[in-house]
Amino acid sequence: MPTSKLLASSFNERGVYPCPVCRVGKITNMPLMEAMYCDFCHQIFTINIEKQQLKMPSRQPPLIWHWNGLTWTEAQLEGVELGWGYVLGAIAFVSLPTGLIGIIAYHLPPRADAPITWLPSIWTVLTFLSHFTIIFWLFVEIYQIPLMAYWRAMQQRFLHR
Ligand SMILES: [Zn+2]
Predict the structure, then answer these.
(1) Distance 136 CA to ligand 1 centre (A)
(2) Are 66 and 45 within 8 A, CB to CB?
(3) CA of 31 to the centre of ligand 1 (A)
(4) Which of 6, 67, 86, 124 sits at a 20 to 30 Å CA gap from 20?
(5) Is 30 exposed, middle or buried (0-12, 13-18, 19+ CB in 10 A)?
(6) 56 with 45: CB under 8 angstroms?
(7) H or E stretch covering 99
(8) Cα–Cα dist 23/39, whole Å
(9) Are 36 and 29 in contact (CB under 8 A)?
(10) Domain parsing of the chain, residue ranges
(11) Ligand 1 centroid, distance to 78 Cα (angstroms)
(12) Rounded to the nearest whole angstrom, what is the distance from the C-alpha of residue 153 to the centroid of ligand 1?
């Protein structure tokens, strides 16, 4: 496949493009279909030439990518904008309860002879970890398909060697 095809500026159904999921394979048009197929992770994508868009319909809501002329933009969930509001919300969700419990633990320390003086500190750490885990899980939930597809593809590649 000539590399000049990879440098084509606009997305069209005859081109060869890097796979946005595994970032290893190449996606090419499936004959007679408005779809593209990755030769590495075997994902199938539907294409929208007008919008320069690639969609992975195998999950709901579908993940979509836009072609910027050189590469695919970060994956987006169709109909979902992950803006700064969400980022600030996530930071607040982790830091506020942790901060609150940390302040209480700092200003109201247990008596030095109490048997569980370490409890407030541990509780602060646990609060942070539990809230952070929820945010991390949400993040993975959004992006898990690319990660999992990549992992599966790598496993297959090594197993079939
Ligand atoms: Zn792929």
Answers:
(1) 24
(2) no
(3) 18
(4) 86
(5) middle
(6) yes
(7) helix 84-107
(8) 11
(9) yes
(10) 3-77, 84-159
(11) 20
(12) 8
Predicted structure pTM score: 0.54
pLDDT digits (tens, 9 = 90+) for 29-82: 998 888 999 998 888 999 998 999 999 988 777 888 999 988 898 787 777 666
- Tell how far the Cα of 147 is from the centroid of ligand 1, in angstroms: 11
The two three-digit tokens of residue 114, written as one number: 């109490």
Q: How far is the CA of 44 from the centre of ligand 1 (A)?
A: 9
Q: Ligand 1 center to residue 1 CA distance, Å?
A: 17
> From ligand 1's centre to the CA of 22, what distance in Å?
4
Mean pLDDT of the chain: 82
Token pair for 36:
């593209």
For ligand 1, the distance from its centroid to the CA atom of residue 85, given in whole angstroms, is 31
- Cα–Cα distance for residue pair 59/113, rounded to 1 Å: 56
Inter-residue contact 92 to 85 (CB < 8 Å): no
Amino acid symbol at 72: W
Mean pLDDT, residues 82-100 taken together:
86
